[in-house]
Design goal:
Layout: H1 6-15, E1 19-22, E2 28-32, E3 51-57, H2 65-69, E4 77-81, E5 102-104, H3 112-118, E6 126-129, H4 136-141, E7 150-153, H5 160-169, E8 174-177, E9 180-182, H6 188-212, H7 215-218
Parallel strand pairs: 2-3, 3-4, 4-5, 5-6, 6-7, 7-8
Antiparallel strand pairs: 1-2, 8-9
Length: 219
């Protein structure tokens, strides 16, 4: 039996609920943005060639899906958002994606152990970890990743002290910690002060509006 052609493979993705964008250079962007995409839906990825960007949101995939994702050896960008059934162990399959430069794991159940599995990705430049379980220890681990240029993560399990230490040790990396954009020339405390002043200004405006509101509307 002959393998499917690229056009047939693309049709298979679309039949599984995915979308495909084919660029002029022959590379593909594949997206599964509907809620409920499963491991079985990703079987259609195997015949595809030259996939450089794969995007899944609110998918019900498990760690088994990473074996299928790992077959896309030309992948440069991988975005997994709100895929809550994947865990640290699944990330071990991504070590074979030598070309991977951008990785989004926002709102996934990924922690420090998962980062250890990603260490072999020597071309990884940008990493999104917002809403994950990564802690201060995980952020410290990233100081050894020489290829990184940008890291995004929420401050839920990361202390200000760890973030400042990371910036000091790796001033070449742009770190976005929740609402804080920690560039080399700006201190974390200065950012926090500006946010506090902005919040106080907004609260003051709201209180003033409530005071001016007719009493019968405020009851």
């Amino acid at each position: 039996m002959e393998p499917p052609t690229q056009s047939q493979a693309i049709a298979g993705v679309e039949a599984s609920g995915g979308d495909v964008i084919e660029f002029s250079n022959g590379t593909l962007q594949v997206s599964f943005l509907r809620t409920g995409t499963t491991d079985a839906d990703l079987d259609c990825l195997y015949p595809l060639d030259k996939v450089t960007f794969l995007r899944l949101e609110c998918a019900k995939i498990t760690n088994e899906a990473f074996q299928k994702i790992a077959s896309l050896r030309t992948l440069h960008r991988l975005s997994l958002v709100c895929c809550e059934q994947i865990t640290d162990e699944g990330l071990s399959h991504l070590a074979s994606l030598a070309e991977l430069a951008d990785l989004v794991l926002n709102n996934c159940q990924i922690g420090d152990r998962g980062l250890e599995h990603l260490a072999p990705l020597t071309r990884l430049k940008r990493l999104w970890l917002e809403g994950t379980l990564v802690t201060s220890a995980g952020l410290t681990m990233l100081t050894k990743w020489t290829s990184l240029t940008e890291v995004h993560l929420t401050g839920r399990y990361v202390t200000d002290e760890a973030a400042l230490a990371f910036k000091k040790n790796r001033p070449d990396i742009r770190v976005c910690l929740n609402w804080l954009d920690m560039r080399v020339d700006e201190d974390l405390s200065a950012r926090a002060k500006r946010k506090r002043e902005r919040d106080e200004k907004i609260c003051g405006a709201i209180n003033k509006a409530n005071w001016l509101m007719p009493w019968r509307w405020r009851r």
